[in-house]
Amino acid sequence: MSNPDELSTTRQGQLQRLAELVRDLHQLTPPEGLLDELTEGAVQWVPGAQYAGITVTRRRSDIETAAATGSYPLILDDIQRRHREGPCLSAAWAHQTIRIDDLAVDDRWPRYCADAIAQTPIRSMLCFQLFGQDQAVGALNFFSEGINVFDNESVELGLVFATHAALVWNMQRRDEQFRSALASRDIIGQAKGMLMERYRIDAVAAFDLLRRLSQESNVPLAQIAQQVVHADHPSH
Fold first, then answer.
1. Do 185 and 167 form a contact (C-beta atoms < 8 A)?
2. CA-CA distance, 20 to 88, in Å (whole number)?
């Protein structure tokens, strides 16, 4: 029988190595590749996991797979998209952790389970809610072809990866918003320059003209600016 102190030391060592893995991923991987790398690493660490994927849904109508190891997570997300039900969606929408020990006997999502069994060899699943902002929610999901493979350790380590995946997702969103803001600023600057040259007005008057066009047409300012630029350069 193992000594409790030895088990505790071993556990601490595992968590330390896991923390080092996640730290290295953040330092060495570009933001756009972090979710893929994190998902790959999670499969190696979570006991029982053979595949993993991240499901993202917006307004309960648009479901996509943000990261996946292998084809089965993609197939299972497609089944959820078709039936509007499934454990990954429930984990995301209900902010909970869901464990399925055997799809063949689980009756919570009958249509999903039937198609999952028919189209894949997956029998066990473990799903963690990730985030819920900007009208988007998501789940980190682990899959196995065996039954009864996920235990309390799987849940504990899965939660660690779910926490880091949520942080990565938020980091990517901020990066996308920053790049979008820079692109909008550039296109607005181009449009202002064109209006200044065309109408012999200063920068303040050019921006005010764009703003008034945006308000009157109820079209975002960046889109109005893009229309001005493309009107001068129709080949773009």
1. no
2. 28
Distance CA 140, CA 163 (A): 10
Tokens standing for residue 188? 């607005």
Q: Is 116 exposed, middle or buried (0-12, 13-18, 19+ CB in 10 A)?
A: buried
Residues contacting residue 107 through CB under 8 Å, at least 6 positions apart: 113
CA distance 188 to 72: 44
Least Cα distance to 38 among 68, 58, 11, 16 occurs for: 68
Q: Which residue has the tokens 């991240």?
A: 54
Per-residue pLDDT 10s for the chain (236 aa) are 555 455 455 555 555 565 555 555 555 444 556 788 889 888 988 999 999 999 988 765 689 898 999 999 999 999 999 999 999 999 988 878 999 999 999 999 999 999 999 999 999 999 999 876 556 788 999 999 999 999 999 999 999 888 888 877 766 665 555 555 566 677 878 888 888 888 888 888 888 888 888 888 888 877 888 888 887 655 44
80: helix, strand or coil: helix
State the Cα–Cα distance between residues 188 and 197, nearest whole angstrom: 14
Cα–Cα distance measured from residue 159 to residue 136, given in angstroms and rounded to the nearest whole number: 19
